[in-house]
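Minutes, project check-in

Agenda point 3 was the complex the collaborators sent over. CS summarized: two entities, 930 residues total, and the question is how they sit relative to each other. Sequences were read into the notes so everyone works from the same version.
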Amino acid sequence: MTGSNLAAALPEALTDRLNALLGEHFTANASVCGHHGGGGMRHPNLPPQAVAFPATTDEVAAVVRLCAEFRVPLIPFGAGTSLECHVGAVAGGVSLDLSRMNRVLRVSAEDFDCTVEAGVTRMALNTHLRDTGLFFPVDPGVDATLGGMTATRASGTTTVRYGGMRENVMALKVVTADGQMIRTAGRARKSSAGYDLTHLFVGSEGTLGVITEVTLRLHPVPEAVAAAVCAFPSAEAAVSTVIEALQSGVTPARAEYLDAVQMGAVNTAFDLDYAVADSLFLEFHGDSESVQSQARAFGELATANGGADFRWETEPEGRERLWRARHQAGFAALSLRPGAVPWSTDICVPISRLAECVVETRADLADTPFPGTMLGHVGDGNFHCILLLNLDDPIEMATAAAFDARLVRRALAMDGTCTGEHGIGLGKQAALVHELGDAVKVMRAIKRVLDPDGLMNPGKIFSAA
Amino acid sequence: MTGSNLAAALPEALTDRLNALLGEHFTANASVCGHHGGGGMRHPNLPPQAVAFPATTDEVAAVVRLCAEFRVPLIPFGAGTSLECHVGAVAGGVSLDLSRMNRVLRVSAEDFDCTVEAGVTRMALNTHLRDTGLFFPVDPGVDATLGGMTATRASGTTTVRYGGMRENVMALKVVTADGQMIRTAGRARKSSAGYDLTHLFVGSEGTLGVITEVTLRLHPVPEAVAAAVCAFPSAEAAVSTVIEALQSGVTPARAEYLDAVQMGAVNTAFDLDYAVADSLFLEFHGDSESVQSQARAFGELATANGGADFRWETEPEGRERLWRARHQAGFAALSLRPGAVPWSTDICVPISRLAECVVETRADLADTPFPGTMLGHVGDGNFHCILLLNLDDPIEMATAAAFDARLVRRALAMDGTCTGEHGIGLGKQAALVHELGDAVKVMRAIKRVLDPDGLMNPGKIFSAA
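CS then shared the predicted structure for the full assembly.
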């Protein structure tokens, strides 16, 4: 679906100068623009009027300055994998596709850090690192760019142990709305030097400037890894097992909940024979001794909560099969209603409230007229419902919106958040105000002063006005 | 020493209304004002014209609004322990002493978090937590308030393992310059909901608003703790041992370097008989098995680097004696030159460059005409020189300033920072610009929009103009 995009055509003088700057790496080709519109899930596709493919920070700065001169919006674009239409051209303009900025600039194995251009994907980085004994852990499932993951403050399955982008970005190179290049920090492990601009740009969704380089923390590849799937008698039993483990000091590297509906879909899609029950997908990292002791301690808690049918995978192939099933759970869910469009919710609550929140949400989901699954990063208190919808049925879409609004209200009443990891984009703007109230005015003030003409990814996080 | 303070007297109408609001908890008493001037080290004491002692966030907001109405500066004050004159009243005004806001509002043992008023000190919090099995680890040595530690982005001896305030503050309640109360986040472990205002205020040094409540991560009290002092043949050997330990996955809870001069001072001041040599003060946390294996692994690396004379303390009293010696090292250093004023430097570099930086700085320090010691949190790459100076000798002070400038340049050339944990305040403003260049313009823009009249702790981080 392509939404309406009311912006006027780009000024010819601008396209001439972008052509002169970038040559074949600037295009207004409709198909290329159509692939940069951020559609998906419940969101319309909102193509830009042109796409620029800069190769360097200097080229990014030149594009930013040109767009500023002509007052044309600019939308930074990584891999286009975001779920809240972060890259849709709400007000037209130029999409700034960073995929050519794909160099790993530096790896310091001794300091456990590296610097990459914003267009490097997380999998490409890990391939680059494979002989260093280090890896970059943040894993949102898809192969997003590290610039995009930074811009949306992404996290994912390993956050319970390694943190998300918030914890793993050390410094950024950014082109601000006026075309200046800034470096937000050096490479020291800590610093008290002025305002924390690094964290201001982590999660800013392209609305304050263009991230062109990212300095990241790396982690040692664990000596031993064990993964398992375990079935439970209820959602509460599964979730409680993870919470009890964390509270007793056992921190899995991944602790993923999938409900029985989702497990059935996974079995069908990937020809597996897991129990069709509320389940946990787990992974433990450490030396072989500690992996064994963690697995034993976790197993005891699971058994006490009625968990059974532990299936362990210690070889890479088995683990890969297991995590493919988890990471493609959204795809698998689609088999429950062929032709449906998925809508993923994203709340996160303090872990002490998680079991209650999951149980209430499960009951609410059972009352809706469409199929839906539940899954999530329960070690962080974050879970998703995947609602399978007929986008052409306005009553069904309104019912889904009401379900999501109830879910957000439930999470906020538990001191949680409307978005654990997907971001605000177009989809959560009302929820953000509901969550943080007057703090959103402070955010708008920062936006106003750093992007006075409102050209950096306008209409995201808050409306353009 | 009292510096000049050129501000006019406070408007009588303002003092009348502050008196009406706070009664005895508002004073212009010269002695009280004198204790709120932030002097110490090389900095002058710059007393405010009055001090307000609010008891609630509402009272803070009322004081902020009154000062805004009369365009009078407001300087948030915690325990006054900062080292860069953060609380000096550069342009006069009202000091906002938060010591009456000393309640622990909530502890959620299940979620490993708590919320405190800004005036709670870290030791008071840990006393409050003593029956919960949890503790708050960030330890800058002195008993600072948690609001102050947040505002300066403090860290300290345990940061190598537990992180500093940046990693341990989850959410804040803040009164902004226009007297609005905002909450920067909820209690979810992660969130992608808009700009990260929490981290913007962590380290903002009171220049953007007044932090009145802090939500903090807590950590389980380790089952076993062992501390030790170990002597080395050189600074390089001591520092390299810590770096090698971190690189091999052994993360001490504390890893403090003290040079031979400092060890001599510690022996004298506390009647101890440690070897007068470049030394490490260490602590390991975990279950008893892992503490033993960490200590063994660390001991092997130390021995390979020529370390000897390990003195272990596993009982609380012995550990307390050991860490008192470390935490009061600055006091001990004063015995090297009675009557001298200390000046503490604060650079931090990537750990791969630390040994080189320490060795070069040691040589530079040996060439200065005044005594000085070196010590630091070497697991983070952060170390301090304590220069012992005659404040009345302008040539000596200029020599010290030149030494510090060389040290900052050395650290920045190694991609480090001018301040690992003390902050900018009055003392590091030129260094901040040297370190981050145009990024400081972005900081100034944020300051301008969130505090348009420049009343929140003016003259800190950057000059008031």
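Noted in discussion: Chain A is about 35% helix and 20% strand.
Follow-up: revisit at the next meeting once the mutant set is ready.
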